[in-house]
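Lay summary

Proteins are chains of building blocks that fold into shapes. Our project writes down both the chain and a compact code for its shape. Here are two examples, one after the other.
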Amino acid sequence: MTLTFPEPIVRPSARLVAERWQAWRRGLFGSPVNLLITLGFVAFVLWVVAPFLRWALVDATWTGTAKDCAERSGACWAFIADKGRFILFGLYPSGRDGQAAAAVALVAGLVVVTGMPRFWSRRLVLVWIVTLAAALAVMSGAPSGPLVATEKWSGFPLTALLSVIGFAGAFPLGIGLALARRSEMRLVRYLAIAFIETMRGVPMIAVLYVSTLLFPLMLPAGVTTDKLVRAQVAIILFVAAYMAEIVRAGLQSLPSGQYEAARSLGLSWSATTRLVVLPQALKAVIPAFVSLGIGLFLDTSLVLVIGLFDFLHTARVAATDINWNGFYNEAYAFAALVYFSLSYAASRYSLWLERYLRVGEHHR
């Protein structure tokens, strides 16, 4: 009689941990190249990340004055605490910060609602128009008292408004340019190509200079336009050129059968474009729209060259205060954290939206 012993039972969780460890080990040390990359990353952490964390957290000064900060070797976050209001709102009247914050809240809420697919409908266009008009009215101070001149609009509210309104204004214009570039009418097609390639062939800073320096010279004597309005229009035109190419890529990705099916149903060109082509094309390039929006949000810092106080510029100017002179590292670090946080959140949303749309297609 032979005795048999049952094989040891390996819990699924333990087996899963072992498999993951093997995968990690192969990825980190499985080849000479992987080993070199791992060692390089460890060296980067030891020589760059660790000293930065020590500067930013361990040796930092969180409260106090500039004198207190000078006694320590770390970051001076007391500077951010003291100058935070100016960094966020800049030249906006200090007693009316609530209005600027309310305008930012309206814009942020609008972006969040737009990011939820269940709210995608034609009514969303009206919501955008009403909300942006309300944000501009609140920012101007119309509901509560004397108007705030646009020269005082600065800081993060200015950055938010320039980027969101720029994207919203460029969206319909970009769609129109994309359709015009694919038009069978030569004049319309050539004009669209000329506009798109011209805008894409020059940097945004050049477009801003033209809107600020050259455009006023073209106006009749006595006619003036607000500098902020000119900058906003320049941003819209610049972004529209890139958006047109994104939309055109979406249109070209559709199979020809979609057009043929629409014709077989007797739909006109406008009905085919509105009901069949554009909905599918726009859905296909939504991740590219998000990437363009992130780029626009970051590029609004270029308005500094035409004298507008955006968020990055107010952070830099805050470090020139006689009581806090020289804390540029903290100012730029804080601004970078804000830019990175919002951009990273938008990029994660883009990845989520891709998965959501892919699952939605599979369930049809």
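And here is the second example, written the same way.
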Amino acid sequence: MYPYKNPSGSVLAFIISIFVIINLANSQPLYPPFCSDPINKTSDPGFSSNLTILLDTLSSKAVVNSFYNESSDGLHGLFLCRGDVSINVCQNCVINATRELKSHCLTNKTAIVWFEHCMVRYSSTNFFGKEQILPNLRLCNTKGHTSQTDVDAFSLMYPIITEASNSDTMFKANNFAPNNNESEKRYGLVQCTRDIDAAQCSHCLGQLMEKIRNSSCLGKNGWRILAPSCKLRYELYPFYELPPQAPPSAPEPKPGDKDTGKGGNGTTNKIIISVSSIAAFAAVLVSGLQTSDQASTSVSCKV
């Protein structure tokens, strides 16, 4: 006899390894923090401790907020989580981001860091309510395409900029299928910090689109640009969290159908369906990881 092997166990192990890889990737910044304006330790000996208190406060507020700004002891800070992620993902991201700032910028009066799911910044100058696009981080896919894809990208991005600017969350993610061809869908996401108003949000995102138009990112399969007050991203694959879909309703039983009970083929079918669903989900995750890596190969930073 051959030993029995449980296929669901190996698939689950594979899924766990994928999630470990994703968590490791998401716990790292997209680029090292921008730290500027170093302090004079002699004239301001309490700066680092005051900054630590501010960053700890921001981390604690991420338990229930996706955006928060705070002023304390002459320092001003905020965090913004991507509008599609859960509060748990948001909190973990802010914790990692504030830890990164503590490690690299504890003696700087101004700093900002971007992670996949959040951004954290602080300054000794009050920046709340002020639109800022510097410094910014630009990432481009290394693969190119035809000029028609740029037209499709702009057809997607400009409408969602308008929608995001006029929404309470200042966030919008959507997709666009050229000529209703589902196999050629494009995906876009835009977001602004909620301390600026609608006009500033629209202007900020418009400025970033102009930077894309005038950069080496034009003609690439995907790109993103992140600034202190806003950010945008465009890809040929789904990279944001899709809203959960309602499960299909069970069909009405037909006359004469027999109840299979708690055992038999009914239980076996459920196991097979579950394992198949997990395997399909794993395939999507692996594909997303590979494409995301390609989209982050070329980096350009402007201060």
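What can we say about the second shape? The longest strand covers residues 75-81.
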